[in-house]
Amino acid sequence: MTDTRPTPRLRRGRASLAVSFFVQGAVFALLVTRIPALQDRYGVSDGLLPAFLAAVPVLAGVGSVATEHLVKRVRPGLVLRWVQPVVSVALLAAGSGSALWQLALALAVFGLSVGALDASMNMLGVTLQHAYGRSIMLGFHAVYSLGGIVGASLAWAGAHWDVALPVLYAPLVATLVPVALFASRWYMDHGAGKGTDKGTDKVVGESDQASGSGSGAVSMKLLLPLCLVMSFAYIGDSTVSNWSAKYLQDVLHSSEQLATVPYNVYMVTALLGRTFGDLGVRRFGAVAVVRAGTLLAAGGFAIVAAAPGAWVGMAGFTLLGLGLCVLVPQTFAAAGRLFPGASDAAIARLNIFNYVGFLIGSPLVGALGGAWNYRGAMLVPMVLVLATLWYARSFAPTPARYGDGHERSRTVDVG
Description:
Blueprint lengths: L7 H25 L2 H8 L6 H22 L5 H21 L3 H33 L4 H24 L4 H19 L11 E2 L6 E2 L3 H4 L8 H32 L4 H4 L1 H24 L1 H21 L3 H15 L2 H12 L4 H29 L2 H13 L18 H8 L3
Antiparallel strand pairs: 1-2
Helix pairs in contact: 1-4, 1-5, 1-6, 1-7, 3-5, 3-15, 4-5, 4-7, 5-14, 5-15, 6-11, 6-14, 9-11, 9-13, 9-14, 9-15, 9-16, 11-12, 11-13, 12-13, 12-16, 14-15, 15-16
Subcellular location: Cell membrane
Protein name: MFS transporter
Keywords: Membrane, Transmembrane, Transmembrane helix
């Protein structure tokens, strides 16, 4: 990365993309934290609910694949600009229907559009990081975590005061959609760098090869280590989001009220880790930050598995938030460095493994917990996350980003 002094246009592009990350964090939290209310509203049985929940990440993966091809013709900024309102409206539709087919349709639209949103949002983040010449990706994901905290807090308030889902969702969507559309005027697309093409949202002055909009090929052999890391990180994340409350209450015998706290603690520590993570990358390098995050996350799972009581378990979830939070943003950034001539395609493919991990994590821990025990089940994501240490060198800046394919293969293909 070159040391580029950010222009006012770059700073506006960064701020506008941060708004998009915040909105998406809030919308996603408003969905996942109110799943029990959705289940009650539509009368979804416990047996059918997993099928509905599994369909969302599957369709999100389809949306991510479609985005890889779409951005060859349409700039990622335009994709993000129009797909983000669709995600928000799908949330409102899911909370406003009465028939089961309406829920299925709303969740299908949500899944497809959220895949396109996640892919295009991270494409723009990688483009901006390249233009800035320093690590800023963790900051975007910190804003996403902040949005998640706000969304989860609003959902808690809605549940506490028994607010109907349409009444909760409608004013929020009516606020978030215009805000996101207004901010989208300053999205930054390919080629962010030295000069400005004032007639478009595109900043020019660097070659397509440097910006990621070129026609370079993506080698899945080289991308695979990052795909595995992405899956491992989301297996860990989905374990916390889906099982932390049950684990604290059923295994560590906490109160029902205390059992709601671990995920909030996890989100807060993830926010803190991501807020300061970019400074760590600039100071110590991406490899060191990824290794430190991996060890913290693995230690968190070990503490959770061995915890004698609820408060020790809470300490484990705190470490998990600090550790896991750095892995996903750095994985996207590493893909952008690895394939500078085809970063959009690389990020779209990598993003699929976000949903693979999410889809595997919760059922894996549930199955192991039921067949064995939940303490032992917590050791499985610990081992998977620890495997990231084997692939940590994949996060190093390499000569490949300047076009040296031989050096790229030698440096990155460590698995």
